[in-house]
Amino acid sequence: MALGLTLKALTLDLDSIMKNLEVADEYADLFSSSPEEKNKLDALILAARFLEIVSSEMKQQNMTRKALAAAMGTSASWLTQLFRGDKLPNLETLILMGRILGLSFEVRSTKISNDANSDNGSQINNLRKLDSKRPPFQNIEMSTGRQ
Question: For the whole model, what pTM was predicted?
């Protein structure tokens, strides 16, 4: 009888382990992506950094998205799509936002270490490693033009 319970417990543990492995594989698939998907993710992250600066300056100037959209000659809903990440801003859009808000964007590059560049199945973890090693906005400098 004790042997039967042990075999049953072992079978349950094996089933549990197999289910956990299946879930782990499905979870890993969520983060394994094609180079195109990785580029899209990087573009979204970079756009979010720019738009965070824009949003912060809008807050300092008490400017609403509706007012910024009007100054840009576009709709508030389109601007909201940018800030939600549904659309990516192009460089002309960023320059226009900057001019309206009195901002100047400067971009500089930094070398990515080889370990962060290797594709070990998790681009998101690589980005988190890179982000944790630098202060916010290290690669994006902002000047307001105000003294």
Answer: 0.57
SS3 104: strand
Residues 6+ apart with CB under 8 A from 33: 41, 123
Instruction: Delimit the domains of the chain by residue range.
Output: 1-31, 38-143
Summarised one tens digit per residue, pLDDT across range 70-84 is: 999 999 999 999 988
Token pair for residue 94? 């960023």
What is the Cβ-side half-sphere exposure of residue 146, based on CA atoms within 13 angstroms?
Answer: 8
pLDDT digits (tens, 9 = 90+) for 12-21: 555 666 666 6
What distance lies between CA 105 and its chain's CA centroid?
A: 19
Q: How far apart are CA 76 and CA 64, in angstroms?
A: 9
User: Tokens standing for 96?
Assistant: 């226009």
Q: What count of Cα atoms within 13 Å lies in the side-chain half-sphere of residue 48?
A: 10
Residues 6+ apart with CB under 8 A from 67: none
Count of Cβ atoms closer than 10 Å to residue 73 Cβ: 7
38-143 is classed CATH 1.10.287.80: no
Alpha-carbon distances, residue 34 vs 85, 91, 119, 121 (angstroms): 20, 25, 11, 10
